[in-house]
Specification:
Layout lengths: L18 E10 L2 E12 L5 E5 L14 E7 L2 E5 L3 E5 L5 E8 L17 E3 L2 E5 H4 L2 E2 L7 E5 L6 E5 L6 E2 L2 H5 L2 E6 L2 E7 L2 E7 L7 H19 L6 E7 L9 E5 L3 E6 L5 H13 L20 H4 L1 H13 L5 H17 L10 H4 L4 H25 L6 H12 L7 H13 L3 H9 L15 E11 L5 H6 L12 H4 L7 E5 L12 E7 L2 E7 L2 E12 L5 H12 L2
Parallel strand pairs: 1-11, 16-17, 17-19
Antiparallel strand pairs: 1-2, 2-7, 3-6, 3-10, 4-7, 5-6, 8-9, 9-14, 11-13, 12-14, 15-16, 18-19, 20-24, 21-22, 22-23
Helix pairs in contact: 3-4, 4-6, 6-7, 6-9, 6-15, 7-9, 10-11
Length: 559
């Protein structure tokens, strides 16, 4: 790398060159101290250039707190507000802005909120472009370059930005993930005419090679379906700690990459789902027209997340990565969660405000979009005598988008559906905007499976665990109509022990607590059954032979 020879600041009339970013891991002794970011650019012709440090992104805020030692060469630098940088300089002067990124939280990444802040520990780092790069304001589409600085001895560095030095624009620069570490493992494989790379931090239940093999199959199935071959793809995997036990996964699709954070005990089915889901984000929503941006973005999540899940399930079955049974099991998991959702009928306009705060609201667009896609797929198959299904619609959406991402994915769906199966307008009003519950038809999958509907109790502890934990075990928020009250639990009793294993949500498994009730010890045991709600589940037809199973895999995956 080396320092730029800074010019005298003489005015230049030529169009500004690319903005060039260099990221260098800086070690102090043997340990990583910071990521140094150098930004080289030609200043604006009017002698004033503005830059913006990372600030807010996808539910995380104050990202600028991780940015330190901001300096400029070739310009006078002034910090304005939290994250704006004003550069004053000779017209068109070459400028270098440098800063360091340091982790701004203590300890390792842990579950309990999106892990999108830059994680920089002594022997590794994971950072999204959104958390690392200062944006230069000015014309949209200004070319951008990315390079790594020197690689520390014994380290490996990787990013989707490696796909070429020249990055199309600032949007693509930000939509990236950068990882590096001492001994970080990178597996590379050809897939669907392109190059796939997987970079893995730490130790896992799976070998990086297994993850790479899985991704090759997913990439080839997706490329075959969408007709997109010859693209490079990158996956970064970072471990996440769950201090309270349990598993957690987060993924972010980044166009030509995704970043995955998960607890290391992730099981094979959950891993397949999240990997296929994040990979489908290459197409949903960007290549079918894109979703709205800014605060309205979550209004379109039912399409961008729900259709992604619908195609996740289909492609896992179609590619043979899942058996019919595994497909049905994952489908049923989502149908059960949708059926039991306390916000199942929330109107779409409730989603933006609560998406990052309420986990039930955050799950709803995934569930609602999936069941809507399933319902519309059924309608197309039945009305066309089996000639058309959702595959025709989403491929038409891609054609209609024509490579342009202008926030019109929902509109492209409306127009493309009309080509094959009539109007969705009243469904948009009823189910999306109105939030009406979607009931799938019993013969959704013809004679391959039956969709059953039964009233089942939801899981309900019957008291407020968060408030009880906060109060050091003194019971709070007992619902007088709930199962804990009926078993004798009262506000003000103190829980001194739990006699049953941690229950993650099974309404049919008893809970038992030892409590101190004003000096007297009591055992409170009950079944955590809450209100009864209709739950739909898919039941495969029994006794199908191999030929019938293969035919059903085709019907159920749309293949
Ligand atoms: Zn997603």
């Amino acid at each position: 790398m080396g320092l730029v020879a800074l010019g005298s600041g003489a005015a230049r009339s030529a169009a500004p060159g690319p903005v060039s970013y260099t990221v260098t891991p800086e070690l102090k002794g043997a340990d990583l101290d910071a990521l140094a970011v150098d930004v080289r650019l030609d200043g604006d012709a009017d002698g004033e250039t503005w830059m913006r440090l990372p600030e807010n992104w996808s539910g995380v805020s104050d990202l600028q707190k991780a940015i330190h030692d901001v300096r400029a060469e070739g310009a006078k630098l002034q910090r304005v507000g939290k994250a704006e940088l004003k550069l004053t300089h000779a017209p068109g002067a070459p400028i270098t802005v440098r800063y360091r990124v340091r982790q701004d939280f203590k300890g390792e990444l842990s579950a309990g909120g999106p892990p999108f802040r830059a994680a920089i520990s002594k022997d590794r780092f994971t950072g999204l472009g959104w958390a690392l790069f200062a944006e230069v304001s000015g014309p949209v589409g200004r070319p951008v370059e990315f390079r790594w600085g020197p690689t520390p001895a014994g380290w490996a560095l990787a990013s989707d930005l490696d796909h070429s030095v020249r990055v199309a624009n600032t949007g693509e620069l930000l939509d990236s993930v950068l990882v590096g570490g001492r001994g970080m493992r990178i597996v590379e494989a050809p897939a669907a005419g392109g190059r796939l790379r997987v970079a893995v931090h730490g130790d896992w239940r799976f070998h990086p090679q297994e993850l790479s093999n899985l991704l090759v199959k997913i990439t080839e199935a997706s490329a075959g379906f969408w007709g997109d071959h010859g693209e490079d793809f990158f996956v970064a995997v970072t471990p996440l700690r769950a201090p309270g036990g349990g598993t957690a996964q987060y993924g972010v699709g980044l166009g030509d990459a995704f970043s995955l954070w998960t607890t290391t005990d992730v099981d094979s089915a959950a891993l397949k789902h999240i990997v296929a889901h994040e990979h489908q984000h290459v197409w949903f929503p960007t290549r079918v027209g894109g979703v709205r941006t800014g605060k309205d973005e979550p209004l379109d999540y039912w399409l961008s997340e729900g259709f992604t899940d619908f195609y996740t399930l289909r492609l896992l079955l179609r590619s043979g990565l899942w058996s019919l049974e595994e497909f049905v099991e994952d489908y049923n998991r989502i149908l059960r969660a949708y059926g039991a959702s306390p916000v199942k009928t929330a109107p779409n306009n409730m989603i933006p405000a609560a998406f990052w705060e309420d986990p039930a609201i955050a799950d709803l667009p995934y569930q609602r979009g999936l069941v809507l896609a399933a319902m519309w797929d059924y309608r197309l198959r039945t009305s066309s005598g089996g000639r058309h299904d959702m595959d025709d619609v989403v491929l038409a959406m891609k054609t209609r988008a024509g490579g342009v991402q202008n926030g019109r994915a929902v509109e492209n769906l409306r127009l493309s559906f009309r080509q094959f199966g009539g109007s969705l307008d009243s469904d948009f009003t009823t189910y999306v905007e109105g939030g009406a519950a979607v009931i799938l038809p019993a013969d959704l999958f013809g004679d391959c499976a039956r969709v059953t509907t039964t009233d089942e109790p939801t899981f309900d502890r019957g008291f407020d665990t968060a408030r009880t934990n906060e109060a050091g075990g003194v019971v709070a928020g007992v619902d007088p109509d709930g199962p804990a009250f009926r078993a004798g639990l009262r506000n003000g009793m103190r829980i001194t022990g739990r006699l049953t294993p941690a229950n993650t949500g099974d309404a049919k498994t008893d809970l038992a607590y030892r409590v101190d009730a004003g000096g007297a010890e009591k055992i409170i045991r009950y079944r955590p059954e809450g209100r009864r709600v209709p739950i739909q589940q898919i039941e495969l037809t029994a006794g199908m032979d191999a030929a019938k199973r293969a035919a059903c895999a085709k019907v159920m995956s749309g293949g």
